[in-house]
Amino acid sequence: MDPKIYIQQSLEGLRTQTAAHSSTWHLGDEENWAADQDTGRINFTFADGAIAEADMQIVGTYNTENGTFLWGWDHPSVAEPLSKHAALARQFGLDNGLSRYTERMVECTEDEAWEFTAVAARLGEANGAYRGPAGTALVFMTFGEIKLSKP
Questions:
Q1: What would the DSSP string read from start to end of the chain?
Q2: Quick one: how far is CA 145 from the chain centroid?
Q3: Spatial distance between the Cα atoms of 114 and 118, rounded to a whole number of angstroms
Q4: Average pLDDT of span 3-25
Q5: Mean pLDDT rounded to a whole number for the chain
Q6: CA distance linking residue 82 with residue 66, whole number of Å
Q7: Using N-to-C axis directions, what is the helix angle for 110-123 and 84-96, rounded to 10°?
Q8: What is the span of the domain harbouring residue 62?
Q9: 23-69 pLDDT, tens digit each
């Protein structure tokens, strides 16, 4: 398959997943989020006390100050077990001659960082993706099956 088509389909699939999560458990309306690399879990907390939790992978970080994306497959702050989806995206880049997927750090837009994340999510058969702020960086993650708990 043409890699450009694959990337576009991946983005569309992620948009569909995100819309479904938004309508069912209100992804995007969370009061707070936290990612724990020791447990490999991400959780979202909501104003009504509800919590959504899932396994996660870190695709990479986007530096808002200089417009660079640092891939999770070779990121000093990403625990190795949490870089599997990023590594799948790297292999996709190797297989298709896409240097933006195989260079450790690339200059890009935030939209392109979403493209990388969408491809990683599709390859890793993730349940969705999230971008969380961490200082001047944005952490791009994929997540698995959501477990909801309400107070």
A1: --HHHHHHHHHHHHHHHHHHHHHHH-TT--SEEEEETTTTEEEEE-TTS-EEEEEEEEEEEEETTTTEEEEGGG-TTS-GGG-HHHHHHHHHHHHHT-HHHHSSEEE--HHHHHHHHHHHHHHTT-SEEEEEEETTEEEEEEE---EEE--
A2: 14
A3: 6
A4: 98
A5: 97
A6: 25
A7: 100
A8: 3-149
A9: 999 999 999 999 999 999 999 999 999 999 999 999 999 999 999 99
Q: What is the pLDDT of residue 87?
A: 98
Q: How far is CA 104 from CA 36, 73, 100, 101, 114, in A?
A: 23, 8, 8, 8, 16
Give the amino acid at 77: S
Instruction: Report residue 16 as tokens.
Output: 């569909």
Query: What's the structural domain count of the chain?
Result: 1
Residue 27 identity: L
Contact in structure between 123 and 85 (CB atoms under 8 Å) = yes
What would the pLDDT profile of 131-140 be if each residue is shown by its tens digit?
A: 999 999 999 9
Give the predicted TM-score (pTM) of the model. Answer: 0.96
Does residue 151 have a pLDDT over 90?
A: no
